Amino acid sequence: MLRQFEEGTTLDRFIFETTKSHADATGQFATLLKQVSLAARLVSSRVNRAGLAGMLGGTGEMNVQGEFVQKLDIYANDTFKSALEHPGVCCAICSEEDEEATLTPDRFHSGKYVFCMDPLDGSSNIDVNATIGTIFGIFSRKSEEGTPATKEDILQTGSEVVAAGYIVYGSGTVLVLAVDGQVNGFTLDPVVGEFFLSHPDIRLAPNALTYSTNEAYAYSWEPKLRDYIDGLKQSGQGWRARYIGSLVADFHRNLIKGGIFLYPATKKAPEGKLRLMYEAFPLAYIVETAGGAATNGHQRILDIEPESVHARTPLFIGNAENVADLEAALA
Ligand code: AHM
Ligand code: MG
User: Fold this and answer.
1) pTM for this entry
2) Mutate to test the pocket of ligand 1, among 77, 134, 273, 276 (most ligand atoms within 8 A of CB)
3) Which residues contact 176 (CB under 8 A, 6 or more apart)?
4) I want to staple 293 with a disulfide (CB 3.0 to 4.6 A). Which of 42, 108, 195, 323 is the partner?
């Protein structure tokens, strides 16, 4: 468990002090986090200037998921990959935007970590200036360092995540990082160009009274889920609904203020819409570290074994008692 850091601590110092407490640290993990911070600052600056820099709108192409690719999706994907490939800290990068995992090119050292990311989540919100973000999860490789990554390195279960985080590009840019049993949030000072600790040791209360879901699909949910949400509305407890349509933004609000996010299976997406490896696993790791819970309705998210890099899952995530109530309602 980490010691408590003071508000205002720079992300650089946090990384330095966190990794130095590991006697066997080689420096690769610290470098990885520093490169994430660099890529986050580059993407943040591009997102802020998107309307001026000709970065709004789509590329006219569709990605492997059959979704329209936005120019900023490509920029974010390329920026994180180029920041992480050359320092020799990753052996593979899995991205929502790439059909296959990208193995570290031969000219660079194939390092210790597998990095999974949704480089720009919520990208359909880009053109309307709503909050978007980057989600990432980190695994340690299983095969020998310096050799090409294998399928066993890439398709690991959520219980093997070693750290996870996200960056929200909203009214400010905030990087939230779960590592060593603690969740901390850092806000970017765009003038100084550094992240400073603004949300130390984030913890979720057991219960909350906010739910976040796309209720327009309620007719295509399983009836038990519809009944559960109807029950909340009729309970007289004062439930609120909040839904942006950017997973990372909805999750961030609930992490700070409390709430449960639901993206169930629907008729259109019978396995759920959200992706296991680079959306559900990282957020489940973060929420559990903060005292919350995440399930697909019947199984803990972090126990699911992924069948492919782009596997999908229903996702119910948030305060622990809310998630337990929901699981009981679906049982
Ligand atoms: P994306 O990763 O391509 O941006 O898509 C995932 C997004 C999530 O951010 C969000 O929770 C969800 O899709 C919203 O879907 P819907 O419009 O069906 O409610
Ligand atoms: Mg996404």
Assistant:
1) 0.95
2) 273
3) 165, 166, 167, 168, 183, 184, 185, 186, 199, 202, 252, 255, 286
4) 323
Q: Are 88 and 107 in contact (CB under 8 A)?
A: no
Q: Could you read off the pLDDT of 38-77 as tens digits, one per residue? A: 999 999 999 888 666 666 667 667 776 666 667 888 999 9
What's the number of CA atoms in the CB half-sphere (13 Å) around residue 21?
10
CB-based contacts of 245, cutoff 8 Å, min separation 6: 122, 124, 125, 130, 214
Nearest atom within ligand 1 for CA of residue 248? 9
The alpha carbon of 12 and the centre of ligand 2 are apart by a number of angstroms equal to: 27
Taken in order of first residue, the domains within the chain and their CATH numbers are 11-199 (3.30.540.10), 210-330 (3.40.190.80)
The three-class DSSP label of residue 104 is: coil
Closest CA to 63 of 8, 118, 141, 26: 118
Asked if residues 317 and 284 have their Cβ atoms less than 8 Å apart, the reply is: yes
> Cα separations (Å) of 329 from 128, 213, 317?
36, 16, 15
User: What is the DSSP pairing of strand 210-212 with strand 240-241?
Assistant: parallel
* Position in ligand 1 atom list of the atom nearest CA 269: 18
Cα–Cα dist 29/26, whole Å:
8
